[in-house]
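Researcher: Please translate sequence to structure tokens.
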Amino acid sequence: MKNTTTRRAVPVLALALAGLTLTACGAGGSGASGAASAPSSTVASAGSGSSGGSAGSGSSGSPNGSGTSGGDASPEGGRTGGQDAAQDSGAGSGRDGGPQRCASAHLRVSAENVDSGAGTTHFQLVFQNTGSAPCTLSGFPGVSFHGRDGAQIGNAADRTGGSGTAVTLIPNAHAAADVQAPNGQSGYSESECALKSVSFIGVFPPGSKDQIDVPWKADECSGRGIHALSVGPVHATR
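Model: Translation complete:
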């Protein structure tokens, strides 16, 4: 009896062991299938992250940002800046190497377009480049009346009319500054005005310390309390 039981038990045990082996293999197979599906899920996640998720932005979004936005926009901005810098540099060197300020020695000044109305005289000081090269005038000339003895009569002209712009004069070209003065005693009292005979206008071209004398024959107020003489910046003429 013992021998029969032993022989029957062996096949039963073998069958049980075989079943366990098949179960283990089945578990391993389903594990491999899960591993294969996991990458698909990750790619989908990255794809959705790429459109809105932070992981996608840090992964596929960053190269696109560097290549398209940063790679194109940044270098393009750099090239634009470089061109602007070059233009600015060229403009600077052009100014340095361009026409110099008009010197008094190469200017002829005259009083023209005189128009005396009720109480006021308007005229222009016209500057002509008598040199052989272009030169520039920028700003206000110094203007004052003088007697035969050279002494100044009244106050020097006040500046009016803004700062103006630089004017480049080729040889023989002209620029002008507008001047306004009282017409005789004008509306002032005799003691306030103290009329004196003027022989010339002393003109300092903008930026120059050399005076140019322009003939002017008229009686002008010499009172120090009067500031009716005024001059505007140099401007181009037609």
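Researcher: Any highlights?
Model: The radius of gyration is 48 Å.
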